[in-house]
Amino acid sequence: MTMQPDSSSPSPEAAPPVGMIVIRDLVKKFHGIPAVAGVSFTVGAGKVVVIIGPSGSGKSTVLRCINHLETPTSGEIWVDGIKLTHNNKDINAVRAEVGMVFQQFNLFPHLTAIGNITLAQKIVRKRGEQEARRVAHEQLERVGIPEKADAYPGQLSGGQQQRVAIARALAMNPKIMLFDEPTSALDPEMIKEVLDVMLKLAKEGMTMAVVSHEMGFARNAADEIIFMDRGAIVERESPANFFQNPHEERTRQFLSQILH
Amino acid sequence: MAEERRLSLDPSRQSRIAPGLERMADWPWWLIVAILIGLVVVFQVVTNQRMSVIFGAIAAGIGVTIRVTLSAYFLAVIIGLFVGLARVSSNRVILNIASFYVEVVRGVPILVLLMYIAFVAVPLLVTGINGLGGRLGIETALGAALAKVSTRNISNELRVIIGLAVAYGAFESEIFRAGIQSIERGQMEAARALGMSYVQAMRYVILPQAVRRVLPALGNDFVAMLKDSSLVSVLGVEDITQLTKLYAASTFLFFQSYSILAFIYLTMTVLLSRGVRTLETRLSAHRR
Ligand SMILES: Nc1ncnc2c1ncn2[C@@H]1O[C@H](COP(=O)(O)OP(=O)(O)OP(=O)(O)O)[C@@H](O)[C@H]1O
Ligand SMILES: [Mg+2]
Asked: pLDDT tens string for chain A (260 positions)?
């Protein structure tokens, strides 16, 4: 796969490689079957990487390995210089720095928007009720729905729910945001409101890894596009090159399918 | 009740009834009959000297029945919660211990379990405690206290409470397990992704939702526990059933005694079901 210039220093004692997210030779098998078969890439601080690829190609699995929702079978991952091991302390330290947004929002239905956004602040970041609520209101403002503070998830539209989920992740002051098909479960008219929030985040310099087939977003926000197929990276390009002259035949086929 | 109503709305049934009488056909007649019988019993107890004596003799056990029901149910819910959590644990040892308990208890009749705990488990436990006291040495205060514990110190009431709690703990654990497993995987993932530990995610995200979902089932078991508390009479604990047995046997007033007993249970279960349902609607009211 794509080799990193600094990948010649495998010793664990060596200084951590440069980059907000560094993934080396990541393999993840489910019941012996590889979902990710040797993936390496780096996301620099403030950069946005968009991962695309057909269903089942391992995109979600790569993302979920970054915050250890899946335990890698082998390979190395560094997040902001912290190497991910099986040690719980490291995992929690990394998770606190990495926000994740899911396709199905996964808001806590028994809590209001504010309740959703303050919960982890209070019990993970140990913030007081007052401060947590202040941050929550700030973040709701940031995603454009300050008036929904006291609504329960069931009272919100899909687009609003996803924006609360983004606010919930942002309230932890993450250094990295992971998005796994954040707009795939949304009705077309709500996709834009979520993408606009993500675009704003990208402009503000957030480091982001985004699995999405929203090509407009990829074109505007991505520093790099990674095309995956069958658990491996087929092509890594800047958006301009990726769309104008993809090298691989498989990339061309895939693009013609999703762009019509 | 909902079922009755649906049945009477069945058009094939209504067609046979004159239109003016349709309303009456919809009445819950069973309830009216039950209330009438209840009123007759109340009337008898209040006006008939002998009936009020019987009622007094039996009602003396209401305190025991309520005490046994409440304490055993409280313990059972606590046991059920922790065993339910153990049953969804990824730790194989914890999982297997919990499964052993649940499967064994569910496979034994409650009555047998009660007798087993009262006559086998508790004496064994006492022997164990005595042994521990002996090990610590009877010179030490704790050792002496432990060595002195005797099977006779443990009242039958306490034994049946433990027995019922152990039996119902298994049922409640299945309710909690099902409740926890009914919560979408994404909830745990979102909580963990925010940096919460497994325990924190359970405590603040999964359990609040799971408990709300299983409240009706927990409520049903509360009522069931009230009824099954009558089993303690087998061990001579003087609840309302035991007092009725004794009273009827000595006076030969079987009809009156057992009618009053059934009436008392029915009144309590009806009131309890109502209470549980009110609580459920209260607790689920602010959801969504
Ligand atoms: N928990 C799991 N257990 C078993 N197999 C899994 C699990 N999660 C993913 N897989 C398998 O791993 C492969 C990659 O899945 P992944 O979800 O990463 O793909 P994806 O690229 O995100 O696809 P999609 O576009 O459909 O979301 C698939 O074949 C999938 O069936
Ligand atoms: Mg996916």
From this structure: 444 444 444 445 567 788 899 999 999 999 999 999 999 999 999 999 999 999 999 999 999 999 999 999 999 999 988 888 777 777 887 888 899 999 999 999 999 999 999 999 999 999 999 999 999 999 999 999 999 999 999 999 999 999 999 999 999 999 999 999 999 999 988 999 999 999 999 999 999 999 999 999 999 999 999 999 999 999 999 998 888 888 888 888 888 887 76
Q: What are phi and psi of A207, to 5 degrees?
A: -75, 125
The complex's ipTM works out to 0.89
Domains defined along chain A, listed by start: 21-107+175-258 (3.40.50.300)
Q: Which residue of B has its CA nearest to A92?
A: B195
Look at A100 and B190 and tell me if their CB atoms are within 8 Å.
Answer: yes
Q: Which fold has domain B49-287?
A: MetI-like fold (1.10.3720)
With an 8 Å Cβ cutoff, is B191 touching chain A?
Answer: yes
What is the residue extent of each domain of chain B?
49-287
For residue A120, the chain B residues in CB contact (below 8 A) are: 191, 194-196
User: DSSP of A72-106, one letter per residue?
Assistant: -SEEEEEETTEEP-S-HHHHHHHHHHEEEE-TT--
Both tokens of residue A53? 């690829």
* pTM to 2 decimal places: 0.86
Beta strands in chain B (DSSP E): none
Instruction: Round to whole Å and give the CA distance between A16 and A90.
Output: 14
